[in-house]
């Protein structure tokens, strides 16, 4: 497949690009600074520099793609709209290019539902994680609204806290509900899950929770 990956220079993005190449996909990595891309040059890797919040800027990166994956995020705790603005721009560019499949990494901590244990649902998420990661979570929820309101064939993937560890291949998933006791997952396993979701028609227009 021809995959376009946003957030390619981050920890999860690096895993996603590397694993996609290993699986034989043609990859377009969208970056702000090519020097930060920690992936060796490859004959099936194309690097595109773009402003991810500008549809015209990202248009060349999504043209001809079979699927687009986004693992954009925000590193500090200040106010941000990067995920929402990028989602809006990417969705617009995909619509004009006729590209339908979109997989976006969200965050399990930003959402509480019946899949969570009572302590997590009523204490950890609203009283601990919510205030601590208020700005990032608000941006992620706004991003999800942009994606859900689109006419694309989207899937939202919601991981918990990310670890910089090797892939295990032993993770759980759930559709449209949080995973009870799912507190962590490695970036490598998250990347593997997202690549698996791309070709899963059953995940279209759903969110998929993933965790150990």
Quick gist of this model?
The chain has six helices and ten strands, in the order βαββαβαβααββββαβ.
Describe this protein's structure.
It is a single chain. This protein has 212 residues and is of the alpha/beta class. 37% of the residues lie in helices and 22% in strands. It contains six helices and ten strands; from the N terminus they run E-H-E-E-H-E-H-E-H-H-E-E-E-E-H-E. The chain has helices at 11-22, 55-62, 82-97, 118-132, 134-148, 187-198, and strands at 2-6, 26-31, 45-49, 67-70, 101-105, 153-158, 161-163, 172-175, 184-186, 206-211. The strands form two sheets. The protein has an eight-stranded mixed sheet, sandwiched between helices. Strands 7-9 form a two-stranded parallel ribbon. The radius of gyration is 16 Å and the shape is globular. The mean pLDDT is 96.
**Over all CA atoms, what is the radius of gyration?**
16 Å
Separation of termini?
Answer: 28 Å
Proportion in β-strands: 15-25%
Question: How many domains, as an integer?
Answer: 1
Global structural class? alpha/beta
Helix content: 25-40%
Q: Going by CATH, what is the homologous superfamily?
A: NAD(P)-binding Rossmann-like Domain
How would you write the strand order of the largest sheet? 3-2-1-4-5-6-10-8
User: What is the CATH T-level topology?
Assistant: Rossmann fold
Instruction: Output the number of helix runs.
Output: 6
CA-based shape: globular
The biggest sheet, with number of strands, parallel, antiparallel or mixed sense and barrel status, is:
8 strands, mixed
Order of helices and strands: EHEEHEHEHHEEEEHE
Oligomeric form of this entry?
single chain
Q: Would you identify the regions where 5 or more consecutive residues have pLDDT less than 50? A: none
- Please name the CATH architecture: 3-Layer(aba) Sandwich
Mean pLDDT: 96
* CATH level 1 class label: Alpha Beta
Count the beta strands: 10
